[in-house]
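Hi all, posting the design record for the shared folder.

TITLE: backbone redesign
STEP: 1 of 1
STRUCTURE INPUT:
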């Protein structure tokens, strides 16, 4: 066995957020993941159907040395049709039943608020849509508090609203905890998240030279620098790493957003880049190693230190075993 390989096996990495229900060739992908020393994966639900599938996948692919866990939740966009079909109460009841039906479920989400902005920071999301997202999010914040499970939060351009919704439900008794996944905010916003006791998870976005927002523009550059500032300053015991695969491939695997046709509006552009349809290669859990390496370089720390810290943090937050 080569030294490189034995080292990879000795290190334990966790991909704390991916969507395996949206990935084909799962057998092959999981084999590749194991070879990279990633031995825990949390696969995240975004609708009732994807939550069910996530539980099924975590049951099917877990073994003694490779552990998989699932979360159940309704994403503000991906799960919208569930709420339209079943109504909010029924959706929350179903999530609750899914939690009770399996010991693989370690969190509530992906849930949150996803607002769209123009390149000039004008809001494109209507008030009606915002109200819908807020109700759906707050119902899941409450569910997480009731079940004493961590929240997996998606936040795009809605920081104040998100902090407000959490503060409303977080009381000293509720001990609500969670993670802001795939961080895209600045340091001020990060401090608020940290003050609430939440973790911050970095995805391939942290490796970008131009951020999702206004890709290939000065605003995109500024946002990318802000995300990296947060990745430098966040206390080591509050950091998680993830791939959000099959979306958001890290550099150098990411496609080049500046090559998108110029006729596209900034909203479509952001969506395409965010959903990674412009990437050369699709993302997969093994690439969490690239995110860990990037953070290690950024913070001038050994790779093993980042691997160990993010592993322990995931164990702590999600209550998962070795
Ligand atoms: Zn996600």
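Okay, here is what came back for every position:
SEQUENCE:
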């Amino acid at each position: 066995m080569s030294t490189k390989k034995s080292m990879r096996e000795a290190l334990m990495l966790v991909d704390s957020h991916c969507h395996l229900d949206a990935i084909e060739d799962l057998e092959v992908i999981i084999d590749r993941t194991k070879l990279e020393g990633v031995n825990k994966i949390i696969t995240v639900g975004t609708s009732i159907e994807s939550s069910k599938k996530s539980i099924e996948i975590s049951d099917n692919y877990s073994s003694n040395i490779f552990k998989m866990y699932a979360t159940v939740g309704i994403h503000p966009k991906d799960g919208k049709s569930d709420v339209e079909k079943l109504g909010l109460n029924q959706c929350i009841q179903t999530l609750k039943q899914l939690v009770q039906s399996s010991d693989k479920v370690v969190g509530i989400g992906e849930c949150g608020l996803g607002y769209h902005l123009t390149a000039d920071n004008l809001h494109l999301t209507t008030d009606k849509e915002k109200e819908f997202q807020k109700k759906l999010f707050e119902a899941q914040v409450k569910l997480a508090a009731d079940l004493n499970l961590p929240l997996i939060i998606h936040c795009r351009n809605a920081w104040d609203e998100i902090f407000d919704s959490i503060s409303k439900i977080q009381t000293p008794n509720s001990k609500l905890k969670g993670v802001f996944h795939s961080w895209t905010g600045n340091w001020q916003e990060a401090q608020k998240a940290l003050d609430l006791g939440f973790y911050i998870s970095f995805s391939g976005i942290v490796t970008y030279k131009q951020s999702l927002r206004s890709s290939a523009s000065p605003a995109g550059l500024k946002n990318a620098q802000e995300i990296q500032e947060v990745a430098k300053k966040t206390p080591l015991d509050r950091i998680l790493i993830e791939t959000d695969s099959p979306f958001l491939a890290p550099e150098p695997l990411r496609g080049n957003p500046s090559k998108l046709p110029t006729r596209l509006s900034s909203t479509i552009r952001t969506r395409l880049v965010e959903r990674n349809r412009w990437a050369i290669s699709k993302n997969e859990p093994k690439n969490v190693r690239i995110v860990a390496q990037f953070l290690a370089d950024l913070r001038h720390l050994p790779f093993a230190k980042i691997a160990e810290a993010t592993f322990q943090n995931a164990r702590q937050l999600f209550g998962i075993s070795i």
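COMMENT: The mean pLDDT is 86.
Let me know if anyone wants the other runs.
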